[in-house]
């Protein structure tokens, strides 16, 4: 059911794909085999019409009065998102945040393999976290090559983030997942996604504001 | 310049407001006083036309050939998002993730006050993190009342998240910020925002997939 023309999916739909994927995985884990566009829309926060339009754009059509097959949709979207491939990732900065990320249990089920951890603190270098040993940042470049790491996860303080990103890019990573609260510049051929807690917090605040006197 | 009719802002625009806010704060921190709709659009990933339409919907109009005043926009959006108020928050679960969150430096500048930390581990209870002492979860209900806590941040393992949410709701919080990788059910009058790392990871994967052989 996966079509071959998802090069034509609109940007807005692409932005919603990870939300579809996350929500459908949750629904699958709850044991449901079928989901309606109404239920999916309610959970994601868009209209059922938008759901049907989005899903149709990559060739998934529900059955009227029945709904969509959850497992099939998960598989389709997984392929479109490139999650059927294996990506090797490295986390740079093993403070509390990096440590929490290193223990994130969903990496494997999303197709990501934690291939290396780096820190500059000698007290942390050499420790084993989730089966992966912490290396010195001095070994960053050689390890990225030898372990074929495609994605670097930046969990260092804001002031060090750009320098770490520059080294990652020079060493050949194709993507950066940034958790430092600062804007990082990368060349056009490197993908970057930044996590920023202010987005979730301000969404919550917006809704509370209308409700709490 | 803040208008009084932002009750009519569309859902899609509301969803983008936190991105505007975050991006404009970054631009301000970089020292720019003026930003064009082109630059803002490029950074957020929407068209300049969409930017102008979104901003006009809450009464902000740039000057042709000049742009928008960054500081003014930040203030306007801050008010719309309710970030000019002070929200008291509590973090439940002080593992690595909770610890990292407790040290998040932007809480104060966003109007959030870290009012309490809770854990069930006697080795952690009593510790002082970022000036806040860790309390036993046994004291959850009384502390939420006495410290007027409106938002609970769930940083416990997935299996404990719903039970913690139920206690928070019963104790009177109005909002929950959930970091456990599980769906949490709350009554309709309680707001919930869930952070899910799979969204950022799959966005990255989608873009890498077309680029890495």
Report on the structure:
- The structure is a homodimer of 213-residue chains.
- Residues 1-7 of chain A have low confidence and may be disordered.
- In chain A, strand 5 and strand 6 (132-136) form a beta hairpin.
- Chain A contains 8 helices and 9 strands.
- In chain A, helix 2 packs across helix 3 (48-57).
- With 213 residues, the first copy, chain A, is an alpha/beta fold.
- Chain A has 2 domains: 6-80, Arc Repressor Mutant, subunit A (Orthogonal Bundle); 87-198, NAD(P)-binding Rossmann-like Domain (Rossmann fold).
- In chain A, strands 5-6-4-3-7-8-9 form a 7-stranded mixed sheet, sandwiched between helices.
Radius of gyration of chain A: 20 Å
CATH homologous superfamily descriptor of the largest domain in chain A:
NAD(P)-binding Rossmann-like Domain
* Inertia-based shape of chain A: globular
Q: Judging by the overall fold, what is the CATH architecture of the largest domain in chain A?
A: 3-Layer(aba) Sandwich
* Number of individual domains of chain A: 2
What is the quaternary state of this protein? homodimer
Low-confidence stretches of chain A: 1-7
Q: How many β strands of chain A by DSSP? A: 9
CATH class of the largest domain in chain A: Alpha Beta
The name of the CATH topology of the largest domain in chain A is Rossmann fold
Strand share of the residues of chain A?
A: 15-25%
The percentage helix of chain A is: 40-55%
Helix and strand element order of chain A: HEHHEHEHEEEHEHEEH
Report the major sheet of chain A: 7 strands, mixed
Q: Which structural class fits the helix and strand makeup of chain A?
A: alpha/beta
What's the overall average pLDDT of chain A, rounded?
88
Specify which chain pair forms the largest interface. A-B, 61 and 61 residues
Distance between the termini of chain A: 50 Å
Number of helices of chain A: 8
User: Could you give the order of strands across the largest sheet of chain A?
Assistant: 5-6-4-3-7-8-9
